[in-house]
Design brief:
This protein is α+β, with helices and mostly antiparallel strands. It has one domain. 27% of the residues lie in helices and 12% in strands. Strands 1-2 form a two-stranded parallel sheet. The longest helix is centred in the last third of the chain and has 9 residues. The radius of gyration is 15 Å and the shape is elongated. The chain starts with a helix and ends with a strand. InterPro entries: Lys-tRNA-ligase, Lys-tRNA-ligase_SC_fold, Ser/Thr-sp_prot-phosphatase. It holds the Pfam family tRNA-synt_1f. GO terms for molecular function: ATP binding; hydrolase activity; lysine-tRNA ligase activity. This is Lysine--tRNA ligase. Keywords: Cytoplasm, Ligase.
């Protein structure tokens, strides 16, 4: 990044926890209650998904409504 853009590469910061509204369990693939991007696209258009993530700072926890 420094050679091309003359600046350091951005630092990745993951979201703390993303859950499903109304479900009080922790989302995990081993428990079978995880959501894939393709599943979200069955409910929301891409711009809405982008907005849901963009309105929270990385490192924050938030919940996604599927109703």
């Amino acid at each position: 990044a420094r050679k091309i853009f003359n600046r350091e590469a951005p630092h990745y910061v993951a979201y703390d926890f993303i859950g499903i509204k109304g479900n009080h369990e922790k989302m995990s693939s081993s428990s079978g209650n995880s959501i894939t991007p393709s599943n979200l696209l069955k409910v929301y258009i891409p711009e809405v998904i982008l907005f849901m993530f963009a309105k929270y700072k990385p490192g924050a926890a938030f919940h996604i409504g599927l109703d």
